[in-house]
TrEMBL record:
The gene is folD. Residues 139-280 form the Tetrahydrofolate dehydrogenase/cyclohydrolase NAD(P)-binding domain. This is Bifunctional protein FolD. It catalyses: (6R)-5,10-methenyltetrahydrofolate + H2O = (6R)-10-formyltetrahydrofolate + H(+); (6R)-5,10-methylene-5,6,7,8-tetrahydrofolate + NADP(+) = (6R)-5,10-methenyltetrahydrofolate + NADPH. Belongs to the tetrahydrofolate dehydrogenase/cyclohydrolase family. The keyword Amino-acid biosynthesis applies. It comes from Gluconobacter thailandicus NBRC 3257. NADP(+) binds at residues 165-167. Residues 16-120 form the Tetrahydrofolate dehydrogenase/cyclohydrolase catalytic domain. Keywords: Amino-acid biosynthesis, Histidine biosynthesis, Hydrolase, Methionine biosynthesis, Multifunctional enzyme, NADP, One-carbon metabolism, Oxidoreductase, Purine biosynthesis. Pathway: One-carbon metabolism; tetrahydrofolate interconversion.
Length: 284
């Protein structure tokens, strides 16, 4: 068996065009979608991500209000800035680029953003909604994963899903969404201390990896025809590697391209989320 690869580039272009059309429709109604993007410090990797997000927004007609704060900013100063953006009626959504400097409390920052402006979908109210039949805001990477699963045509009800990684950006929200009332899969969350990793993966219909461990998942761990979605990234010896070994393509049914960033899907879903929030605000 040879896996069918998800065409992330083609899907990304379709999503970009869809967002451009939606933004144009909103503007015609007098609704100007606007993303407030808060960047703390001068982390080179974060700066690259931020630049790409801004470029995407401008391509489709979403205004961006970029706020750059020094790495030395205090918790009080950062929360004050978020509060100002939160009460600004011209701002559709707020995104604080993570990770933050170690002296800042990420959870406090996430909770300072109102759920209806929380583009990352990490506010406790939005996370809880993932378990319901009508999730409010789905975190961007998880929304991208969900879009790929829908593309396979696989019946999700009762499907066995293994999620490798339990981080708050991917693993945790993915487990809540996929085990919730809207998707109804059976989810097992795996991590570095999990026992019998290979056996659990082999008994899964869907494998989602977000561990940042290069080529951890090998062909012998994957059942024939399984859907394998790899959003993990690491850079051993300066080379980008995913969590899934390329040879998994010999047994999987569907698979993300090996050793390829999932970033295009995350960025495209960011656009959709900003437009969703702008649309909801415009009809409120």
């Amino acid at each position: 068996m040879t896996a069918r690869f998800f065409d992330l580039d083609a899907l990304g272009l379709r999503l970009l065009e869809d967002s451009r059309n939606r933004a144009g429709t909103l503007r015609a109604r007098g609704i100007v979608p606007c993303l407030a993007l808060v960047e703390v410090g001068e982390d080179p990797q974060s700066a690259t991500y931020v630049a790409r997000k801004i470029e995407d927004c401008r391509k489709v007609g979403i205004e961006v209000r970029k706020v750059v704060l020094p790495a030395s900013v205090t918790r009080s100063e950062l929360l004050t800035q978020i509060q100002m953006l939160d009460t600004d009626v011209s701002v559709s959504g707020i995104l604080v680029q993570l990770p933050l400097p170690s002296h800042l409390d990420e959870n406090a920052v996430i909770q300072a953003i109102s759920p209806h402006k929380d583009v990352d979908g990490l506010h406790p109210v939005n996370l809880l909604s993932l378990t319901t039949s009508e999730p409010t805001v789905i975190p961007c990477t998880v929304r991208g994963i969900d879009a790929l699963l829908l593309q396979t045509g696989l019946a999700l009800d009762g499907a066995r899903v293994a999620i490798l990684g339990r981080g708050k950006l991917v693993g945790l929200p993915a487990s809540l969404l996929l085990s919730g009332q809207s998707r109804n899969t059976t989810v097992t969350i795996l991590h570095r201390k999990s026992k019998n990793l290979g056996n659990i993966l082999r008994n899964s219909d869907i494998i989602i990896t977000a561990s940042g461990s290069a080529h951890l998942v090998t062909p012998d761990m994957v059942r024939a025809g399984a859907v394998v979605i790899d959003v993990g990234m690491s850079w051993p010896e300066g080379m980008l590697c995913g969590d899934v070994h390329p040879d998994v393509s010999e047994v999987a049914g569907w698979m993300t391209p090996p050793d390829r960033s999932f970033g295009v899907m995350t960025r495209m879903m960011l656009l959709k989320t900003v437009l969703d929030l702008a649309e909801k605000k415009g009809t409120a």
